[in-house]
Structure formats: C-alpha cells, structure tokens
Amino acid sequence: MKKIVFAGGCFWGVQAYFDHKKGVLKTKVGYANGNIENPTYEEVCSGGTGFAEVCFLEYHAEIIGLEELLELYWKAIDPTLLDRQGNDRGNQYRTGIYYIDKEDVKIIEESKKNQQKNYKKEIVTEILPLENFYDAEEYHQKYLKKNPGGYCHIPTELMK
C-alpha cells in the first residue's frame, strides 16, 4: 500500500473523485503543510495558517499506479490557477502534490513536465514533501456522499 496527498481546491470534490477509482483503498480529507498544530476548518479558512485543503490517499500500487493517479489528478484541476479552483478562492485552495515517499518525486516531476505541454500558462501546482497532516472535522469526511447536492468544482462527468 502506498500513500500520496493531493490538494485541488475544495477537498470534498477531490475525495469524492478519488473514492470512485479502482485501487484507491482509503481516502480522508484534511489539512497539510501548515504552521500550527491541530487546525480547525475556520482557522484554515482564515488564510493565516499556511494549510492546504487536501485529500490523503492510500492506494494499491499494483492495481493503480502513481502515474495513473497523477493523470486523474491533472484532469480534475486547472493547475495554472494560483490559490483557487472553481468558486473557491484563497491559499488553502491551492493545488499541490505532497509526497511521502521520496522515490515518487521523479514520477511526479515528470508528470508535471508532461502536463505543462498542454498549457500556455505555467503550472503553479506545488510539489513538496508532506510536512504535516491533520484530519479535517468528521462532517467534512465523505461530505458529498452525505450531501449529494453539495458544491463541487470538479465536473460531475469526471466523478463517474
């Protein structure tokens, strides 16, 4: 089992999107790479904590590889937008790939390089080691499953 963390705007949609992918064993939403301990949603939304809203994935690498997960990730975001996706705006909504295994960096960087060919504007998605991660509050976990009409910036056709 391997792990990777994706930031792609509001974490509700990112979680719902990856929950439907074969080989993704577990997801949870939370806050990554910020500067305080045990942040609350309100603190993260204030913009002063440095955290990104993220989805933590555990996946079976023999069923779905990191390359395929990255391809899916790039389809779900606009990597050229700084600190926003859809209607969500603020530093907590930035795009980012936070790795746990240093061996993944080469694959991630190569994927980003290949994606850049599809855009005239520069990709601003950050690629960093996961420094810290805190689970989001329970009401955020599987939010779109609990609230099917909830807002999501990821197009519904990608959720299938």
Produce the secondary structure layout:
Blueprint: E1 2-8, H1 11-19, E2 24-32, H2 41-45, E3 52-59, H3 66-76, E4 84-85, E5 88-89, E6 95-99, H4 104-116, E7 126-129, E8 133-135, H5 143-146
How would you sum up this structure, described in words?
- Keywords: Oxidoreductase.
- Pfam families: PMSR.
- Residues 3-153 form the Peptide methionine sulphoxide reductase MsrA domain.
- It is an enzyme of class 1 (oxidoreductase).
- With 160 residues, the protein is an alpha+beta fold.
- It has a single domain (2-159), classed as Peptide Methionine Sulfoxide Reductase, Chain A.
- It has helices spanning 11-19, 41-45, 66-76, 104-116, 143-146; strands at residues 2-8, 24-32, 52-59, 84-85, 88-89, 95-99, 126-129, 133-135.
- The strands form two sheets. A six-stranded mixed sheet has the order 7-6-1-3-2-8, with helices on one face. Strands 4-5 form a two-stranded antiparallel sheet.
- Helix 4 (104-116) links the parallel strand 6 and strand 7.
- Helix 3 packs parallel to helix 4.
- The two termini are 24 Å apart.
- The model has no long low-confidence stretch (mean pLDDT 96).
